[in-house]
Amino acid sequence: MIWWRILSREIFRTRKSWKKNDGWSKCHREVLRKEWHGLKKNEEWKISNVRKIEQRTEEWRSKDMKKYIYDEKNGLSYTLYGDYYLSDLVINEEEPTYRKYGILRKQFLKEHRPARYQYLLMTGKLIEQLNAVDQEAREHVEILMKQMSKQLVVIEELKSKNQMEWVGKMNNIKSAAEEIVLKRIIYECSE
After folding, report:
1. How confident is the model at residue 113 (pLDDT cuts 50, 70, 90)?
2. What whole-number distance in Å separates Cα of residue 173 and Cα of residue 191?
3. Which one of 1, 113, 121, 157 has the fewest CB atoms closer than 10 angstroms to its CB?
4. Which residues of 112-147 are buried (b: 16+ CB within 10 A; e: fewer)?
5. Which residues are registered as beta bridge partners of 18?
6. Which residue has the higher pLDDT, 144 or 5?
7. 136-168 per-position pLDDT tens digit
8. Measuring CA to CA, how many Å separate 188 from each of 38, 50, 81?
9. Cβ partners under 8 Å of residue 165, min gap 6
């Protein structure tokens, strides 16, 4: 592309030689003689400048940039990779064992408390909290179901006499207990 531009420029500059019919080869020789030497010098200049810049960068990096730094403002340590400092974030996460209530809590945090979600995620405490919330919610549901079944007199005798009625009452108790747990634990506003 560059050669074509150079050749076309020289052809139009030397129209007289083109009209005399010794044109193309003469123009071509002229271009080679005039422009080629300039391109070589230009390329050499670019290469030497790049080398100088790389050398200065290396000197500057060796003088000013330490391999490891610690920022007291945010309490993070950083490591030098090339020209950039990257934070040394190591997430020590628990094994995710949460189920329904942990998933609901995670979705709630993502949608309604994004800053809290990001904080927990960046500090590595998200899975720990989701596991704890899930465990707490399951325990509360079980306790509430036992209490409500005692209040509504849903006992094992009813199960043996009329199974469908017992199943219906237990499902109602479970859904009521879950609704209470969801409001108090999963979707709580104060943290």
Report:
1. very high
2. 28
3. 1
4. eeeeebeebbeeebbbbbbbebbeebbebbeebbee
5. none
6. 144
7. 999 999 999 999 988 988 878 888 888 899 899
8. 74, 59, 42
9. 158
Helix, coil or strand: residue 11: helix
d(CA 185, CA 135): 11
- Tell me the DSSP string of 88-143: -----PPP----HHHHHHHHHHHHH-HHHHHHHHHHT-HHHHHHHHHHHHHHHHHH
Angle 59-65-66 (CA atoms, 0-180°, nearest 5)? 125
DSSP 82: T
By the 10 Å C-beta count (0-12 exposed, 13-18 middle, 19+ buried), 27 is classed as buried
Whether 143 contacts 184, CB under 8 Å: no
Torsion angles phi and psi, residue 186, rounded to 5: -75, -50
Neighbour tally for 25: CB within 10 Å = 9
Please answer whether residues 148 and 173 qualify as being in contact, where contact means their C-beta atoms are separated by less than 8 angstroms.
yes
Residues 6+ apart with CB under 8 A from 89: 76, 122
